[in-house]
Design a protein that fits this description.
heterodimer, A: alpha+beta, 8 helices, 10 strands, B: alpha+beta, eight-stranded mixed β-sheet, 7 helices, 33% strand, elongated
Chain lengths: 289, 379
């Protein structure tokens, strides 16, 4: 069983090992959508780092907890999950895995990478896990392994516990793969919803900011919002001095977004970046809610 | 004169709140309607017994009418009908604008008296006055509340000539909250104004506003400050006031009416938020950025700038307040996505502040109403 899989090696058979995010990106790449190059460290690779017994016990206790009592028991669950988190941070990867990670990082041929979670449960139709796990940007060789370990450890946090408990997801079945991806130096970035869920219309919503799109999803920057009608004809004029996006960029984003929506046959929540006039798709998942 | 008294000689002898208000303004030197004359209730009483205007009455009315025309203005005839416990009575006789012929003027007066007679308005119970004034042309008008929560002054403004139009559904006013102490504008909402209202001789008409001007503020900063300052002059003598005002074509501010604020209804100040997950919810606000274990938030509307997912998860899935108002981030942020997924009523609005305990209503379209209750003036 391969510990590392590249984008073009991912298919339905190994989907469970690479997680939904990595799988979805590979589908897009195969359809000709520009996705930054990446490889995935499969969830099975980390089996020696994960204290599965402790997680199973915690998951069982959680499953037996009455929702009315969750608040009173929460401090204890939080302590338990923190212990798991801490153990993962302290556990080194096995040597053969370390070698494979480094070799493939060098094969990627870039100095800086993005380290992103890819869980088997995230990016689902009813459970986005939006923001529940972590991504780390602009990671260099020196910080590569500690950051991958950190990304893995972030599977086991209070927020994930709450999310799983509420969504009735068996916590012990959550398996995390980690994506190591070429870091795009974004001039502009943001998010697209291929359905306006706020007004329940078929218009496409684009939010954009200068720099990384991560700022938009984390809410750490002020973004600009564009509502794009489906017929593709932009009804408004853009002031290039004030607008983050130019008209041709909006048209192109609209084109890519509708293509992605067709591929998955459902409204999508898409993270994108523009670097040197090229549009990259960083993530796509079903639009929830 | 027997039947007519100029406003500046009025002695507060009549019960009419409208007259009392105008007299207050005049007494304090607040700019108000110019050339205003009161036709006293005694003329109506006389009319009831004779069914006509006496020669003396006609002579006095002609004198006043001509004095206004000589100023190059036209005449407006307004009624001031007062009956204790019957506020609807003031609407039973119509006002007349832009009168230029004495015959029309006299006919209007007689018609009003005849209508009042038909309605059996007893002069011993009902005080029927006419107000004769110079017609003024204004582009902007509105209302003002001189005291909100003992800290602020509230101003509504429209493009038009009568603040009665604020009760029409098709006109959305600009709104301003001004600090009583510093006269600083604390909050404002500028409406999109598709048309302005103009009073013509033939009636009221709507005139389309140019697209480029539709989102301009009705008032400039100095006008807002001046309105606020005038209101405090009146309040210092007479207490909290609800005032109607206009800005004339020559940019002069005048006040047309003032009355005690205790007669006013609860005030709403409106914000337009962006919808994350819609629903109609009402509740008391709590500013919150950290959750402590034993908090009960189920009846609260939480206002927060904290988009940390751990905090948002707790709100969305464990503590479940009535609603969340995000003051940071975007509609597509992780925080907004989680709250929407949790089907928790959420809106996004920036650059606003709410105090703990304030009563707020969130509409399905994202409009937020803040309620200032009139009894809060006593705090």
């Amino acid at each position: 069983m391969k510990k590392i899989l590249w984008s073009n090696e991912i298919d339905q058979k190994n989907k469970e090992l690479v997680g939904n995010k990595a799988y979805n990106l590979s589908v897009l790449a195969k359809q000709g959508i520009r996705v930054p190059n990446y490889f995935v460290i499969t969830s099975k690779s980390f089996s020696k780092s994960i204290p599965q017994k402790a997680i199973d016990i915690l998951a069982k206790e959680l499953a037996l907890t009455n929702p009315k009592n969750i608040l009173s028991k929460f401090a204890k669950f939080n302590d338990d999950i923190s212990a798991v988190h801490h153990r993962i941070l302290k556990t080194s990867f096995v040597n053969c895995l370390v070698k494979k990670i480094i070799d493939n990082y060098l094969k990627l041929g870039v100095e800086k990478v993005a380290i992103r979670s890819s869980a088997n449960c995230e990016d689902g139709h009813d459970q986005s896990f939006a923001g529940q796990f972590e991504s780390y940007l602009s990671v260099n060789r020196l910080h590569l392994l500690p950051t991958i370990r950190k990304c893995l450890a972030e599977t086991f946090t209070e927020q994930v516990l709450i999310y799983c408990f509420t969504k009735k997801i068996d916590f012990s079945t959550v398996k995390m793969a980690v994506i190591v991806q070429e870091m795009i130096s974004a001039d502009k970035g943001g998010v697209i919803f291929t359905k306006d869920v706020f007004r329940n219309s078929r218009d496409i919503v684009v939010e954009a900011a200068s720099g990384l799109g991560e700022q938009v999803v984390s809410g750490s920057t002020t973004s600009q919002k564009f509502i794009l009608p489906r017929n593709g004809k932009l009804l408004f004029n853009i002031n290039p001095q004030k607008s983050v996006l130019l008209k041709n960029e909006l048209n192109k984003l609209l084109e890519i977004a509708t293509k992605i929506e067709k591929i998955y046959n459902s409204p999508q929540d898409i993270e994108w970046a523009i670097s040197k006039n090229k549009i990259y798709i960083l993530q796509s998942r079903p639009l929830t809610g | 004169m027997l039947y007519i008294q100029p406003l500046n000689e009025y002695t507060f002898s009549l019960k009419s709140k409208k007259l009392e208000g105008l007299a207050r303004l005049t007494k304090l030197g607040i700019p108000t309607v110019s050339h205003l004359f009161i036709v006293l209730p005694s003329l109506y009483k006389e009319f009831l017994s004779t069914s006509k205007l006496s020669e003396v009455a006609i002579s006095e009315l002609q004198l006043i009418f001509n004095s206004i025309l000589k100023l190059g203005k036209t005449v407006t005839l307004r009624n001031s009908i007062y009956e204790k416990g019957n506020p609807a009575i003031s609407f039973c006789v119509h006002n007349s604008l832009n009168l230029i012929k004495i015959d029309d003027f006299l006919k209007k007066i007689i018609r009003g008296y005849k209508r009042a007679k038909l309605m059996s308005l007893d002069p011993d119970r009902v005080e029927f006055c006419y107000l004769i004034q110079a017609f003024y042309s204004s582009e902007k008008c509105g209302v003002l509340l001189s005291n909100v929560n003992n800290k602020m002054i509230f101003i509504q403004a429209i493009l038009g000539q009568t603040s009665d139009l604020l009760i029409r559904d098709d006109i959305e006013p600009d709104e301003f909250m001004v600090s009583k102490g510093t006269y600083r504008i604390i909050n404002q909402k500028i409406a999109t104004k598709q048309f302005r209202i103009k009073k013509l001789k033939s009636g009221i008409t709507k005139i389309r506003v140019k697209n480029a001007e539709q989102n301009d503020s009705v008032l400039n900063t100095q006008q807002i400050i001046n309105l606020a300052k005038y209101s405090q002059v009146v309040e210092r003598t007479f207490g909290p006031q609800e005032m109607e005002w206009a800005v004339l074509d020559d940019n002069q501010i005048i006040f047309q009416e003032t009355r005690d604020l205790s007669q006013a209804k609860n005030i709403k100040f409106i914000e337009q938020a962006e919808i994350v997950f819609p629903s109609e919810i009402q509740g008391n606000v709590l500013n919150l950025n950290i959750v402590k274990q034993k908090m009960n938030l189920s009846s609260k509307i939480i206002i927060t700038s904290n988009l940390n997912i751990s905090f948002i998860n707790k709100l969305a899935f464990l503590y479940r307040p009535r609603a969340v108002i995000l003051t940071k981030g975007s509609l597509t942020s992780h925080a907004a996505t989680i709250l929407r997924e949790a089907k928790l009523t959420t809106v996004l609005i920036k650059n606003v502040s709410f105090r703990d305990g304030e009563l707020v209503k969130i509409e399905k379209d994202g409009v937020i109403h803040k309620y200032y209750e009139k009894n809060s003036l006593e705090q």
